[in-house]
Amino acid sequence: MASSSTAPTPAAAGDVSFDRWLDEQRRRHHYAVRRAPLDALPGWSFSRDTGDLVHSSGRFFSVCGLRVTTDHAAAGQPPRSWTQPVIVQREVGLLGILLKEHRGEVHCLLQAKMEPGNVNGLQLSPTVQATRSNFTGVHRGRPVPYTEYFTGDRRGGRVLADSLQSEQGWWFLHKRNRNVVVMTDEDVPALDGFRWLSLRQIGALLRRDHLVNMDSRTVLSTLPVQVLADGCGLPGSAGQDDALHSFTEVLSVLAEARFGYELTQEPLPLREVLENATSPWRRTRDGIGRPDGRHFTVLGVTVEAEAREVARWSQPLLAPVPGVAGLLVRRVEGVPHVLLRAQVEAGSLNVAEFGPTVQCSTRHLTERGAHRPEFLDTLLAPGAGRVLFDTGQSEEGGRFHHALTRNLIVELDESDTRDLPPDFCWVSVPQAQALLRHGNYLNVQARCLMSALTLATR
Amino acid sequence: MASSSTAPTPAAAGDVSFDRWLDEQRRRHHYAVRRAPLDALPGWSFSRDTGDLVHSSGRFFSVCGLRVTTDHAAAGQPPRSWTQPVIVQREVGLLGILLKEHRGEVHCLLQAKMEPGNVNGLQLSPTVQATRSNFTGVHRGRPVPYTEYFTGDRRGGRVLADSLQSEQGWWFLHKRNRNVVVMTDEDVPALDGFRWLSLRQIGALLRRDHLVNMDSRTVLSTLPVQVLADGCGLPGSAGQDDALHSFTEVLSVLAEARFGYELTQEPLPLREVLENATSPWRRTRDGIGRPDGRHFTVLGVTVEAEAREVARWSQPLLAPVPGVAGLLVRRVEGVPHVLLRAQVEAGSLNVAEFGPTVQCSTRHLTERGAHRPEFLDTLLAPGAGRVLFDTGQSEEGGRFHHALTRNLIVELDESDTRDLPPDFCWVSVPQAQALLRHGNYLNVQARCLMSALTLATR
């Protein structure tokens, strides 16, 4: 059985090619994920009181009900109201990446990690990817390696970024993870399954489909400018002052949305969502979903894995329809700007965050009368702009089953000064990086695209 | 009857002395506030379903129940859990101050405004102090003047600060107000009841008890450094880099608290708080409170006023025991630093915010066995440091009845390098000002003390 206590491999990358290492990891990390009915997941049950799907420890996460009322995207109509299942995970998780300079280049310590919802088994996760339960041993599994670099005095490392960031607001209620970057001067051996990779290598790996996992991408988006060395991958990046709008004006676009839009979130027993004649959500033998197949399904899996903290477990996963997340980029007097949109999501902690230019599911777009989000056609049309990035990425495999999002970055011509609908704002790349020092400004889709823009479009 | 449509007084201050103007306002703003039982407030009632105290419009605010579980301040003990009444106000309010340069000095347009909970009738409020209901006319009152400077294109004014900031986390659940500062070049007449005051004048008025209201103080705390002209009132202020800790380290102290402390907030029907044998909260003829008199009472008032949007109304108010909020200040190599404490409050939106060094109620401190908060004795002891500020300030009179807080700022000797307990952090004044550009970093007590420090200790 593979173990994290085997002798460390050399700290510097390059002695074994990355692909051979990854193949080796895949061979050694045997695992099997099998679908299972939600009422046959050991440790999980539907609460008698509420119908919520909960774990017997009372921890990890629950699938609950939520009633949402909002006047966002109602276009002058009265506020819309609906009920839906939602994942509630009160605990704040920790996602940490350890950095070290090797031969003059900043390297990140990443891990080839299996998550049950991954479409392809192993993906590259942060140095530490753990819930507080992992730290306190509720999992009753092996200790999580490298946590000592992210807690207490961090073994003398310097913290370069530390913020609580949101996750998918349509699937989670008020979910946040702590995103931390720590630079060490110590010689830190890469345990089995871990590998030091340079930012240049990671940039190249980001261009491969479903390889760098969502947790890594969001932490990488918070890397400070000085670590990115030449700043943004797009040449011509500049200070915050060389921007179309002042930084306060950018903050003000979001404050206006948080003030101006109504968002009422009423937690409900899941039973009231599933047994309500006016709600399309139903529980079937396959899980929880809708007859029209829209949005997502909640299904169960049983996992057997050798190289995780616990060798065998069962859990629910949320299986969404596929989506697209796209960022339009434009230079303004040479300075790259990204087009962000203040976005209200069902489970937002603070009403609104900046999302990318476009963020939608793609399955129903070709139906008659389907709403096509603003700028979607610009993003997808051949020749509308220069395609800087076009890669399939996965959402977090610990909660989501085969959650595939096409990530697109398209650069428009500098002369493309079309009018913007409300809630959209051109934000310079340095301004977006300044926003990323703080929590709850850029949503997870925008953060993942920012990591691609700054690391993979050089 | 005084009306906001009378001819504007000259825009420049100085033609009538401030005190004569304020006396004149007090004479002209007749009002009467009378106590009334909670079940005799027109428009308000206890919900049959929940026992919550609600308004018939479903808007404004409600008094509800809350169960809180937290391991903060539990000192290694198991998490504490309790229930309490709490004010729920879903709507985000707007607090806006309009700025203009007169004769080379930045002036703020403030209003002498009556609030029913004020200990002394009129206090100086922001240019605009309004809920979204005020904008949309749910109050069915007069339109709120000057709102056009804070919405839409702001009549061409420049926005200098715009963030959603928290209010009292022990009394409100997830309450936020939008704090906005706009600079105009227009000649804006001061309507009756309004007055342009220079930052220097406001600094002097902040040293008078209960004159500059809480809403003004919190907006003033977000004034950008360039408006404060010589930066911090304390000479020797410097850039963010001249600080004991890096800005990321400061952010990290708060991220650590948000990650490390558990805070579970379960909204409850108020009935479950008031009719629970293990809870000390009871409804009596006088209102809602505890036999031991601790924390606060909820009482009712009926108001007759001439110069408010509505001439007569009734509402509940939360009447807290008096408190103290204190900030210790120390120079580090000449740069002033404030001692902030990551603080978990019952109604915090995001687990924790930085509070001042000390924040507590004072009524029960002399009882045997009472817990004396850290640094309270340093703050209050004669000669422990140089007293920079010591003024009685009021919390918001629209929600709180005679809520009086002694605001203290004491400067320690530079050589006072005592060890700090967990959650405390020395933050340079420029760093604190950088935090104040963003929401939910400094709580309302810390923000009010920052406005005193930067404006009233020059």
From TrEMBL, chains A, B:
One of its GO terms (molecular function) is lyase activity. Signal peptide: none annotated. Residues 17-223, 249-453 form the dTDP-4-dehydro-6-deoxy-alpha-D-glucopyranose 2,3-dehydratase domain. It comes from Streptomyces yokosukanensis. This is dTDP-4-dehydro-6-deoxy-alpha-D-glucopyranose 2,3-dehydratase domain-containing protein.
